[in-house]
Specification:
This protein is about 0% helix and about 50% strand. The two termini are about 15 Å apart. The protein is an all-beta fold and about 100 residues long. The protein has an 8-stranded antiparallel beta barrel.
C-alpha cells in the first residue's frame, strides 16, 4: 500500500485512516527497528506495548493519564524510571528525558 496525508491505501482500494488522539503506533528514534503501541482506556490507564527489535519479546508497560495531553509511564520493567512523564502534542509523545516518539 501507499501512505499519504494520514491514510494508507491498499491495491484493492481499501484504506485505513490514521487514528486521532494519543492511541496509536509510534516510532522511537532510539530503537528504529522497533515499535510502540499506546492505548488509553476509559479509566485513564495507559497501556504501552513496546518492542525494541523484531528478535525481542514485546514488553507491556502501564501508566496513567494525568490531564489532557499529559501522562506518566512506568518504564521500570525495562530498567528505566517508574514515573516518566510525557506530553502529547500533534503526533508526538515527548518524554521529560528528551526522547520523543512520533505517531505513524
Amino acid at each position: 500500500g501507499t501512505a499519504s496525508n494520514g491514510v494508507i491505501t491498499f491495491p484493492d482500494g481499501n484504506s485505513w485512516k490514521k487514528a486521532g488522539g494519543i492511541d496509536g503506533v509510534y516510532f522511537d528514534p532510539n530503537h528504529p527497528k522497533g515499535y510502540r503501541v499506546v492505548k488509553v482506556k476509559k479509566d485513564g490507564k495507559v497501556c504501552v506495548e513496546l518492542r525494541n527489535d523484531p528478535a525481542e519479546q514485546a514488553v507491556e508497560l502501564v501508566g496513567k493519564m494525568r490531564q489532557s495531553g499529559f501522562l506518566f509511564v512506568d518504564f521500570s520493567p525495562k530498567g528505566g524510571p517508574k514515573y516518566l512523564a510525557a506530553s502529547f502534542k500533534g503526533d508526538k509523545l515527548t518524554f521529560t528525558d528528551g526522547n520523543s516518539w512520533t505517531k505513524l
